[in-house]
Write a structure and sequence with these properties.
With 151 residues, the protein is an alpha+beta fold. The chain has one domain: 3-Layer(aba) Sandwich (Aminopeptidase), CATH 3.40.630.30. Helices cover 36% and strands 23% of the residues. The protein has five helices and five strands; from the N terminus they run αβααβββαβα. The protein has a five-stranded mixed beta sheet with strand order 1-2-3-4-5, sandwiched between helices. α2 crosses α3. The longest helix has 15 residues.
Length: 151
């Protein structure tokens, strides 16, 4: 962890002015520009009182973000559950503790909202992301992801 770097980073609530930065980070990670996708996602986070969106800024530029929602009673899941939707860090700033910092802030927000358990979905072949969540204390949960391919 790069503590000198992290001291210069500020965490702020997500708002619509962060859209361009998030689209760019997403593009750098996935290679696709998904402006309308992120516009809708940010609007959904901002309109839902149980959602949490956090950005990390360095020199007034967003370099990372995390989105989550408190929900429950879907699929028999109690209302005291938080879901991590998305986490993204500009590749130039990865491996410096920023994702961990964002995660800790989201967990703090979830605790304040009464969340007892936090879930997320990770592709089984995404070793780096699986290891990140493992280091954050996540373990394999009781739910199983089921899939039906229609073609």
């Amino acid at each position: 962890m790069d503590s000198d770097f992290l001291k210069r980073v500020s965490l702020k609530p997500l708002d619509s002015s962060h859209l361009g930065y998030i689209v760019e980070i997403d593009y750098q990670i996935l290679g696709k520009r998904r402006h309308s996708f992120w516009e809708k996602k940010i609007r959904a986070v901002k309109s839902n009182a149980t959602s949490s969106g956090i950005v990390a800024e360095l020199d007034n530029k967003v370099i990372g973000f995390i989105l989550g929602v408190v929900s429950g009673w879907e699929f028999g899941v109690p209302a005291s559950v938080g879901w991590i939707d998305t986490i993204g860090v500009d590749p130039k700033y990865q491996k410096r503790g920023l994702a961990k910092t964002l995660m800790r802030e989201l967990v703090k927000n979830f605790r304040e909202a009464g969340v007892k358990n936090i879930y997320t979905l990770v592709n089984w072949s995404d070793w780096d992301l699986l290891q990140f969540f493992r280091r954050m204390g996540f373990t394999r949960g009781d739910m199983i992801n089921l899939e039906l391919k229609t073609r």
